Amino acid sequence: MKEHVAAKLTAKDDRAACAFADRMIAESQETDAWYAYFDDIAPLLDHPKSLVRNRALHILAANAQWDEENRFDAVIDGFLAHITDEKPITARQCIKALAQVGLAKPQYIPQILSALRSADLSPYRDSMRPLIEKDMAETQRILTGGGSGS
Predict the structure, then answer these.
(1) What would the CATH number be for the domain defined by 2-143?
(2) Which member of 9, 52, 69, 125 has the lowest number of beta carbons within 10 Å of its beta carbon?
(3) Dihedral class, residue 70 (left if φ above 0, else alpha if ψ from -120 to 50, else beta)
(4) Are 62 and 29 in contact (CB under 8 A)?
(5) Each residue of 30-71: pLDDT tens digit?
(6) Cβ distance 81 to 46 under 8 Å?
(7) At CB < 8 A and 24+ separation, what contacts does 20-28 make?
(8) 64-103: per-residue pLDDT in tens?
(9) Distance in angstroms (rounded) separating the CA atoms of residues 47 and 34
C-alpha cells in the first residue's frame, strides 16, 4: 500500500484522487493511520499540478496533530512557501491549512504568522488578492486566539 499512496494522490483520474485524499483527510481527523505515509506525501508539495499540491497540503495539515516524531520540521518551510503559490487557489488552501497546522503544532505559530505578514501578494490579480487577504486574516485570528469566526 505504501508505494501506492502517492500514485493514488497523483492519478490521472482527478475524481478518484480527490476522493482518496478526502478519505485520508477525514480519517486523519480521528486516527493516526495515515501518518505513516507522511514522508510519501511530503514530496507532493512540489508537484507540478496544483490540485496535487492542494491535496498534500490538506493531508499533511490533518496529520500535524499526530506528528510526535516532528517530521513537520522538515517540511514547514516548503509548506509555508505555498502561501504565495503560483496558483491563487493553492495559496488560499495553504493559508487555510496553516490554521490547522498551527493549532496542532503551536511551536510553528510565530513562523506561520511571520510568513503570513511578509507574504508578497502583488503577483495576484486584483480580484484574488482580497480573498487571499481575508483567508490570511482568518488564519491569523485563529492562531492568535481570536476564535474561528466561521
Answers:
(1) 1.25.10.10
(2) 125
(3) left
(4) yes
(5) 999 999 999 999 999 999 999 999 999 999 999 999 999 999
(6) no
(7) 21/55, 21/58, 21/59, 24/59, 24/62, 25/58, 25/59, 25/62, 28/59, 28/62, 28/63, 28/66
(8) 999 999 999 999 999 999 999 999 999 999 999 999 999 9
(9) 20
Give per-residue pLDDT as tens, 103-112: 999 999 999 9
**129: how many CB neighbours lie within 10 A of its CB?**
14
Can you tell me which residue has the cell 495539515?
61
DSSP the chain: -HHHHHHHHT-S-HHHHHHHHHHHHHHHHH-STTGGGHHHHGGGGG-SSHHHHHHHHHHHHHHGGG-TT-GGGGTHHHHHHGGG-SSHHHHHHHHHHHHHHHHH-GGGHHHHHHHHHH---TTS-TTTHHHHHHHHHHHHHHHTTS----
Residue 67 Rama label (left phi>0; alpha psi -120 to 50; beta): beta
pTM: 0.93
